[in-house]
Design brief:
Methylamine Dehydrogenase, Chain H; single chain; about 50% strand; globular; mainly beta; 4-stranded antiparallel β-sheet
Amino acid sequence: MRHLFLLLLLLPCLAHGQDFLTRDLVVNNRQLQEIRLGATTRLPPSGIASAALVAVVVTNGPVGGTTSLMGSVIDGGTLYTGGTAPTFASIIAQGSAFGLGGGCQRGTITDFPVINQNRPRVARFDAGTGLFTLLTPPIPGSDLYDSTACVAKNGILYFLVSNRSLSRLEVYSDSGSGWTFVTSYSGVITPFAGGIRPTLATYAQENALMTVYQLTNGQILARRIELGRGASGTCLLASPLAPVGFTVVLEAALIQMIISDSWFTFAADVNRDGFAEIYTFDLDGACTVYSFAANGTPIAGNGYNWGSFAVIPGRVFGDPVNLFFTLLATAAIDSPASLSPYASPKSGNGGPIAACDARLWQIGDGYIAAGAGINNTHLSLHAPVRARVLHRADQIAQMRQEANVFAGIECGPRF
């Protein structure tokens, strides 16, 4: 049986010990291939709104050679044993869904771009109706696409899609009336041609986006996209050998560093050695890059021959850091030039992982990560919590009662 597990990482008090709550969630009894998380607002009958988590996953399909797209809304109480287990709705029952991105929130909607039948689609959750729908962006032609990503900035959603037919990236915006073309970049080796999966993030204080992608000559390039002006700057992160063909999708993650308005963190298996490489870089002024060969952070195990990454803003021992983790390892990027590894509280088979930062009543700041395993042995919902909040039975009971709702969830850039 295949399950989805949610892993709640609360790292601020690692030095003081942790206790763990666990929970399993069944999706559709088929192997998970991709996972993305987003935030939404839950509107209960009481009329009191609360934050909730939206999970969208790609699984193996009902028949060989197909995939399915499933979605669910998860309340805070789900994280605790005894909470109501959510059900997953079918968004694409049988298709060829892959290249899942998101979730990106604008008002009451949360969008998850995805490729189906080699063309971009959008799985949208609407908090007003409580339903998932599948949208078809108005992209002309019949070019083949193989990856998506999105961010929210100033009330506008921005989408990044990779055009395999033309070896280029395309950027679109949606302010509420559908996709509008913004810009494109050529000379890109896309994921199904062997390239690292393109990523997208936002700047905190500026009207700009950041993307990292791989060129056909193998170079890993960071590009700043100035919104409204068209100008952009670039920074070369690495120069590995050019890919010679497709084996597995090489996932990547990108986010602005919490400690700076200009530094970013990027993670991918750039060297194709089965371990994560982490880069921090700054495009303001000179192109400054630090790299970490994060040996000891394998991205796959026995269940998958590939793995993915999550990089989110957070705190360790009260200090702001960027947190990087796979299903098998965790690290804190303390500064642009400093990385501290931590033992992962959960080992597993690699494969897909996604994360959001979240706050639960009685617990404080935390991080929800969702991953998949090949069987029950490596598949559970973890909620590591600070040991000092678990001293008395009445505290545990109060925590579980008040944790029926999230105090807040932020997925993707927190700015």
